[in-house]
Design brief:
7-stranded mixed sheet; about 725 residues; Glu/Gln-tRNA-synth_Ib_cat-dom; alpha/beta; Rbsml_bL25/Gln-tRNA_synth_N; 19 helices; Glu/Gln-tRNA-synth_Ib_codon-bd; ATP-binding; aminoacyl-trna synthetase; about 20% strand
Length: about 725
């Protein structure tokens, strides 16, 4: 059937379909009057219609006379399909260069994306690059991605006349508005090439997400943006901090600026070098490239000078009001009895604080702002406290420490920060931040707000997380039940999934309670295409199936660890006369039933052996390898009856609390989950001896797991942590 009409929206011409049709010599009439959000459409000569950019592209690939345009065999066609799923990443602003980087590495030793001739996969990537306009042209000239530029140039050289006509007709200087009609069903699943599970480069589906819209930073100038990520070293980095860290990274890259990491180490009672070291580790895990690491404690001398200057200027005073009374007075708008003390009296008490005397320990420094302001953060906030506890970096040199509210505006200005990113929960303190900078006589640093990331059934307060650690409820800050970066990675989350999850939310200021399911669903779409498959049988009450016509001598076959991904490698599977199956599976089998033994073939269960209590203790059957797997109801995983099987401990986790969201004032101890960890003993195939800590695998019909403790000796089980798949977390 001929293509009679090719219809699409003028605002989003499907370049790859247009190019494929032109190269294939297909010349339908063009109708570019469809509404903006319409899918491109072929109207065939018999009146039938096809819709969606990649549906049309595949149709041309199959119908064209060009050699191998849609691959020369089923495998190459599938590879092309993978590239078609990947191509929309080039229409996602934040991920454009990530896509370029991956494709550049992939093309290092290749002339074409698939096989040895031009295919529709090449045209899909060409269209994504060409459709970006000047963005790709500048990268192409910069030699940043030499293999990608070489590939692109060779295609343009070979097919320049046709392709140049298309770019002239449909692409402006800024590119096309909606490259590749990204709203079509074909392209709703965007894929991302990332480092795969166990160190190899592979393709990972990003799972139905829409490309993130670019976010603007107010008054930002390209090349002049300087940001800071400023965690307090009082715990490990958690998923909430990750949002702030990754937004800083995003804006720095967007505006060709810088990010510094600054440790807000102003409270020696909570902080330690352990936390500093692990925060640096977590920041690097997130892929954040920082300009330098600084510490608020580097500025303690200058901050003390500034505090004294404000005291002498009458903009701050020393107060010995007890803390609880002070809090009540601030709430009620009552001025402290010390507010109007003389400068001399204030300086005298300030010196007592610096010396850490008994009198000094009773005092704090407060800013003299406005005790009647409706914004209570402006009601004379505390600037300095007296604390004799040694500091983790500088020991006992100081007895006074600045508060975050005082130190942050100062250090931000001194370090040349242009924009301070902070979560919207601190919105009321923005006025305080600006007022303190004004009183200090420093330049104004712009605050950019974003919503705090909250997760269901999850505590993100470091104070509360510390309680779990100190009370032995978890094994440490990297426990797989914890929302820390190290904890969720240990449970099996890929950093790529976390980054995608955060970036998709953007810098929204709307407070949201997010479900873990969405994050784990993204993760599954990354790990499933590449993780190796293995087999396990639950140890408890496992059942031996004896195949009377099975092999008298065991034999071994080498089969893929992943049927659709060669990079997963191979495994040795032993076939024996007797095999182990799960008791739960045995209970589903009826006498005379034909079942499928995965990676072997069909068998017919002739006899079910039970003990006096009716429990199944054994099965007998015969092989029926010529039987069709399509006719069987049960597809069974199994293990050979050999000594080389490995012992496993399968660990499943649950939330630490039983309530989705704590209400204000509610004590988390009242909603502790009494059972958050479940261990099950199992046996696994012998190939699992080669697992390394951190490797991710799928136990067929049981789910995804991450190896936490690899094989050391036969007496010690391999420990595998269950990874949620997004359906139940």
């Amino acid at each position: 059937m001929d293509i009679k009409t090719f219809a699409f929206a003028a605002s989003s011409p499907p370049l790859t379909v247009i190019a494929a049709a032109k190269l294939a010599g297909i010349s339908p009439s063009i109708d570019n009057t469809l509404p903006p959000d319409s899918s491109p459409t072929f109207i065939l000569s018999d009146g039938l219609e096809l819709h969606g950019a990649y549906v049309l592209l595949r149709y041309i690939g199959r119908a064209a006379s060009l050699p191998n345009f849609y691959g020369q065999n089923a495998f190459e066609s599938s590879q092309i399909d993978e590239w078609l799923e990947y191509a929309p990443i080039l229409s996602s602003g934040p991920d454009f260069e990530n896509g370029c980087k991956y494709i550049d590495e992939y093309l290092e030793k290749r002339t074409f994306l698939v096989g040895y001739s031009l295919s529709i996969a090449d045209l899909a990537i060409w269209a994504g690059l060409a459709g970006s306009g000047k963005r790709w042209e500048s990268l192409r000239k910069s030699k940043k991605y030499p293999n990608l530029a070489r590939w692109f140039n060779s295609i343009v050289t070979e097919h320049g006349t046709a392709l140049n006509e298309i770019t002239s007709a449909y692409i402006g200087k800024k590119g096309i508005g909606e490259p590749m009609a990204t709203k079509s069903k074909d392209q709703s699943a965007i894929t991302d090439k990332v480092k795969n599970l166990n160190g190899h480069v592979s393709e990972n589906n990003r799972g139905g997400s829409k490309p993130s819209a670019e976010i603007d930073l107010p008054d930002a100038e390209v090349g002049k943006v300087r940001l800071r990520f400023a965690p307090e070293p009082s715990g490990y980095l958690h998923i909430g901090h990750s949002k702030a860290a990754l937004l800083n990274k995003y804006f720095a890259e967007r505006y060709q600026g810088q990010v510094i990491v600054r440790f807000d180490d102003t409270n020696p009672a909570k902080e330690s070098n352990e936390f500093v070291e692990n925060l640096v580790k977590d920041i690097e895990t997130l892929g954040i490239k920082y300009e330098q690491i600084t510490y608020t404690s580097d500025y303690f001398p200058e901050l003390m000078e500034m505090a004294e200057k404000l005291i002498r200027q009458g903009k701050a005073y020393v107060d010995d009001t007890p803390r609880e009374q002070m809090q009540k007075e601030r709430m009620d708008g009552i001025e402290s009895k010390c507010r109007n003390n003389s400068v001399e009296e204030n300086i005298k008490l300030w010196e007592e604080m610096i010396a850490g005397t008994e009198r000094g320990l009773q005092c704090c420094v407060r800013g003299k702002l406005d005790m009647q302001d409706l914004n209570k953060s402006l009601r004379d906030p505390v600037y300095y406290r007296c604390n004799p506890m040694p500091h983790h970096r500088i020991g006992s040199k100081y007895k006074v420490y600045p508060t975050y509210d005082f130190a942050c505006p100062y250090v931000d200005a001194i370090e040349g920060i242009t924009h301070a990113l902070r979560s919207s929960e601190y919105h009321d303190r923005n006025a305080q931040y600006y007022r303190i900078q004004e009183d200090m006589g420093l330049r104004k640093v712009l605050i950019y707000e974003f919503s705090r990331l909250n997760m269901v059934y999850t505590l993100l307060s470091k104070r509360k997380l510390l309680w779990f650690v100190q009370n032995g409820k978890v094994d440490g800050w990297d426990d797989a039940r914890f929302p820390t970066v190290q904890g969720i990675v240990r449970r099996g989350l890929k950093i790529e999934a976390l980054i995608q999850f955060i970036v998709e939310q953007g810098a929204s200021k709307n407070l949201n309670l997010m479900e873990w399911d969405k994050l784990w669903t993204i993760n599954k779409k990354i790990i499933d295409p590449v993780c190796p498959r293995h087999t396990a049988v639950i140890a408890d009450r496992r059942v031996l199936l004896t195949l009377t016509d099975g092999p008298e001598k065991p034999f071994v076959r080498i089969i893929p660890r992943h049927k659709k991904y060669e990079g997963a490698g191979e495994k040795a599977t032993t076939y024996t006369k007797s095999i182990w199956i799960d008791h739960a599976d045995a209970e589903l089998i009826s006498a005379g039933e034909e079942v499928t033994l995965m990676d072997w073939g069909n068998a017919i269960v002739k006899e079910i052996v039970k003990d006096q209590d009716g429990n199944i203790t054994g099965l007998c059957g015969v092989l029926h390898l010529e039987g069709s797997v399509k006719t069987t109801k049960l597809k069974l995983t199994w293990l050979p009856d050999i000594n080389e099987l490995v012992s496993l401990t399968l660990v499943e986790f649950d939330y630490l609390i039983t309530k989705k969201k704590l209400e204000e004032g509610e004590d988390f101890i009242d909603v502790l989950n009494p059972c958050t960890k479940k261990e099950v003993s199992a046996y696994g195939d012998s190939n699992m001896r080669n697992l390394q800590r951190g490797d991710i695998l799928q136990l067929e019909r049981k789910g995804y797991f991450r190896c936490d403790v690899p094989f050391v000796r036969s007496s010690q089980p391999i420990v595998l942590y269950a990874i949620p798949d997004g359906r139940q977390t």
